[in-house]
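Structure ticket #2291
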Amino acid sequence: MLKKGEADPTYGSFEYRDQIVQFQPDGDLRDYEDVPLNADTARGANVDLLNESFFAEEVRPYHDDAWIDRGKKDKRDGEVGLIGYEIPINQYFHEYDTPRDLVEIDNEINELKREILQLLSEVQS
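Resolution: structure written out below.
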């Protein structure tokens, strides 16, 4: 699709044969990245700058024909990219229970073996 204006490869406008074009994306190649928020972006400010810098450092060097889809916007702030949070529940709330001593477990298994053998001997007689 032909576009007016300047080429902006970060957002999918490329210069091709002396024209500015926007190629149709291949849905099979589409991928998403989780961009970690920092203190400046935690409340939604400067998210575009964070996305663009992450894209330039982590994606562009490996996929020079990739771009950010401007159509994916967060309804709350209107900026490109959806903001979400991941809270690692186990990291913050899990309480570690130390396993039982191996000798104790081994003794319990031996006791169960004796009990099973006794029950089997009662069934056979």
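Closing remark: The mean pLDDT is 82.
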